[in-house]
Write a structure and sequence with these properties.
The structure is a single chain. By secondary structure, this protein is α+β, with helices and mostly antiparallel strands. Helix content is about 60%, strand content about 15%. It has 26 helices and 16 strands. The protein has a six-stranded antiparallel β-sheet, with helices on both faces. α14 (about 510-525) crosses α16 and α20 (about 625-665) packs antiparallel against α21 (about 670-680). The longest helix has about 70 residues, at about 10-80. The chain is elongated. It starts with 11 loop residues before the first helix and ends in a 12-residue tail after the last helix.
Length: about 775
């Protein structure tokens, strides 16, 4: 039976998912739609205005071109000798030819309706269509109105500069635009006029075609502000353009009002002719488009929200399903106690409440596990340092993994090992080890020191991470001498300090350790206190250049340490040196016998009963290759034995430590110092061993033993509580009662009443 289902689910978590997904999807879409609407509404007007400005610019360029053509045509007519005023006045044939020439000029400009030429003091006007008198031109050809007739006569007779004006023809609604260009003499006096006539309807239709789909009015004004052409599109109101654009002098977009209506005026002025081209658009035109856009966006938004709601439901169901299944699984498998059980168990809880209950339990358990991990942290750190000393780390990746886990950093490029003991190793008590490890932390310079206590050796060691130095050996010697002096001052005893060579690779620290151990062993044999360096052993035998004494010392010490890698490396170096130097046969055998003898001494020092046959066979070698093969086999066997011996000694030490505590926990004076003294190691080493092997601290372990014994005596005997407490190692009875109640939740007397055997209960009060 499913506790949770999708549609009939009472868990509010599903609905939270559903609402969350809807909000997550819908809010950005609504905000985006609002931004799009606002941006579109704001930019739509600008877009239309800029588009209209571009159209006006096109009209301006086209009309400027036509006006330029008319100006150039007027100049050519004025300079044409065939139609000069002298020829026309004296030759009738030239007058007929003038009409023909003007027809050709008219054909060059499709916008021009007719071309006229009039000279001063002559009673004729020449046109592309014929020759007319002033009276015929004014009364019959264009049927000018009286006002237009006077203006036309003045323009033909006295115009000193180019001009343009409109005039009405006799027919209603027929308006023409006259473009006048004077013919000037060299003294800049008018001698005649060239007149181009253009139908206003042609100009109007030209601009109307450019703005056919837009509501508003398009207009063209000359340089004097007179309206030359206009076209109203989809509007019934005729605008006073001159008033509408009053004060607008530059190309641009302006806002203006007329007859209670707001207009957006797009204006484009020609720098060449001074004419103005514009369009006045009512603002309602933009609002209509905005409303259309809003309707479109609203429709799209409605469709998107419906899709989002359906998608949100599917996403909510998909994401809620794992939580539902997890909650069902926990509901079946988790047994609650305490308040959770009293509140109805998991069946009364929602999915997250079930998971929250489990998480709370998991966090509590995790904290306990983390506390145990922290307890083991120092022990693991020391194990890493011991692996470095013994060459048990194979790759840098493995080292980096442990460094990251233990937050151990090597910040300097060089490493070397320092070993410390005394002329009489028995003086190296656990307390003295603690003091030496503390003194090592204050080594001179900015070196980082990591003290280690090999449990199966007669010395303590330290890995020193130091800066690279040109005189590395001098620096090491100075450090060693300073350390000797500090130990003398603080501990009133002269130590033996041995230092191995510096290495750059942390995986080669074991080589420095082998050298430091060998130097320390040599100092113990010779009884020389103070500071010693492995390089000094080599210097003592420099008179025997052909003999590889340094490698032999490392080889033997690596055997004692059980370090295969260093042993193989130095055996190869010895054999290579013997081969390269080519000593005499007799001397070669002497050296080989010395090496064999050294092997025998080293192995017998470890175990005099081991490898008897193997050591005997060493003396029967015939060649260097045979000797090397036998030594390699022996190295492998001996290092294996040393590793087992170390493991055995460590297990014996742990067993001795735990056995001593189990036997002595009733002693009120039991302490870490007593355990360390009994086991022959420092207090810090005992602390680390407890954390590593027992999984708790020394105090917790002893307290647990004592509490178990107290509870056993309370339930199985009738002894007074005071005697039981003292028997189990506690002196302060009130303090113990408080501690017992913390552990068990009841006092010792109440515990006896609850769990004691009836035959052992006393009637009298027992504290």
């Amino acid at each position: 039976m499913k506790t949770f289902n999708m549609m009939g689910n009472k868990d509010p978590l599903f609905y939270r998912y559903l609402i969350s997904f809807i909000l997550i999807c819908a809010i950005p879409i609504m905000l985006l739609s609002g931004l799009m609407y606002g941006s579109a509404a704001g930019s739509l007007q600008e877009e239309v205005e800029q588009a209209n400005l571009g159209k006006l610019n096109l009209i301006r360029k086209m009309l400027d071109l036509r006006l330029k053509e008319m100006s150039e045509m007027a100049a050519r007519i004025a300079d044409d000798p065939g139609i000069s005023p002298t020829n026309l006045a004296s030759d009738a044939f030239m007058r007929v030819d003038a009409v023909r020439q003007l027809s050709k000029y008219k054909a060059n400009n499709s916008m021009v309706d007719d071309v006229f030429l009039a000279y001063k003091n002559q009673n004729f006007i020449y046109a592309s269509s014929g020759m007319y008198s002033y009276f015929t031109f004014e009364q019959y050809f264009y049927k000018l109105e009286p006002g237009d007739r006077d203006r036309m006569r003045h323009a033909l007779d006295d115009t000193q500069r180019a001009d343009v004006f409109k005039f009405n023809m006799g027919s209603p609604g027929q308006r023409m635009v006259a473009f006048i260009y004077p013919i000037l003499s060299s003294e800049n006096i008018s001698k005649g006029t060239v007149l181009f006539v253009v139908r206003e309807s042609m100009l109007n239709s030209f601009v109307e075609e450019m703005f056919s789909g837009l509501q508003g009015e398009t207009f063209i004004l000359n340089e004097k502000g007179e309206q030359i052409a206009s076209a109203a599109n989809r509007t019934t109101k005729k605008l006073d353009i001159v008033k509408l654009i009053d004060g607008f002098t530059q190309t641009g977009v302006y806002s203006s009002q007329q007859n209670g209506t707001s207009y957006s005026v797009v204006l484009n002025r020609s720098d060449t002719t001074g004419w103005s081209y514009g369009v006045a658009i009512p603002n309602s035109e933009f609002l209509t488009r905005v409303f259309e856009l809003r309707t479109l966006l609203f429709s799209l938004l409605t469709v998107v929200i419906v899709i989002v709601a359906g998608s949100a439901f599917l996403l909510a169901a998909f994401n809620y399903r794992p939580i539902r299944k997890l909650a069902e699984h926990l509901h079946r498998d988790l047994q609650l106690s305490g308040k959770d059980a009293q509140d109805g168990g998991l069946s009364a809880k929602s999915g997250f409440e079930v998971i929250g209950t489990v998480a709370k339990t998991a966090i509590h358990t995790s904290k306990k596990l983390q506390e145990r991990v922290d307890m083991h942290h120092e022990a693991i750190r020391e194990q890493l340092l011991l692996k470095l000393l013994n060459g048990k780390l194979d790759t840098h990746d493995e080292l980096i993994y442990w460094q990251d886990d233990l937050k151990l950093r090597f910040v300097h490029p060089m490493f070397y090992v320092v070993t410390i003991t005394f002329k009489e190793p028995s003086r190296l008590t656990p307390h003295l080890k603690e003091q030496l490890l503390e003194l090592l932390q204050y080594l001179q310079g900015n070196a980082h020191v990591y003290g280690v206590e090999p449990a199966d050796e007669r010395w303590i060691a330290a890995i020193v991470n130091a800066d690279a130095h040109e005189s590395q050996e001098d620096m090491q010697r100075a450090q060693g001498q300073w350390l000797v002096q500090r130990i003398r001052e603080h501990l009133d005893v002269t130590p033996i300090v041995a230092i191995g060579s510096a290495v750059a690779d942390p995986l080669h620290i074991n080589r420095s350790y082998v050298e430091a151990s060998a130097s320390l062993e040599h100092a113990l044999v010779t009884g020389q206190e103070g500071c010693h360096q492995f390089g000094e052993l080599k210097a003592d035998s420099e008179h025997e250049h052909w003999y590889p004494i340094e490698e032999q010392i490392r080889l033997l010490q690596s055997l004692r340490q059980g370090d295969r890698a260093v042993a193989y490396e130095n055996l190869d170096a010895i054999m290579a040196a013997l081969t390269d130097r080519s000593p005499s046969l007799l001397m070669l055998r002497y050296v080989c016998f010395d090496i064999v003898n050294s092997f025998i001494k080293a192995v017998k020092a470890l175990d005099k009963h081991a490898f008897v046959s193997e050591l005997g066979n060493l003396m029967a070698f015939q060649t260097l290759e045979e000797l090397e093969l036998m030594l390699r086999r022996l190295i492998d066997d001996v290092c294996g034995m040393v590793e087992k011996m170390k493991e055995t000694r460590h297990e014996e030490l742990v067993e001795r430590m735990i056995s001593y505590v189990n036997q002595s926990y009733r002693n009120a004076g039991l302490s870490l110092d007593l355990v360390a003294e009994q086991c022959g190691v420092s207090v810090s080493h005992i602390v680390k061993m407890f954390r590593e092997q027992v999984g708790s601290t020394f105090i917790d372990y002893v307290t647990e033993l004592r509490m178990q014994e107290v509870k056993r005596l309370l339930t199985e005997t009738s002894e007074p509580i005071k005697d039981i407490v003292q028997h189990c190692g506690y002196i302060d009875l009130p303090n113990f009662v408080r501690k017992f109640k913390t552990y068990e939740g009841v006092t010792p007397g109440e515990y006896r009443k609850l769990y004691g055997k009836p035959a052992n209960l006393r009637s009298r009060s027992e504290v």
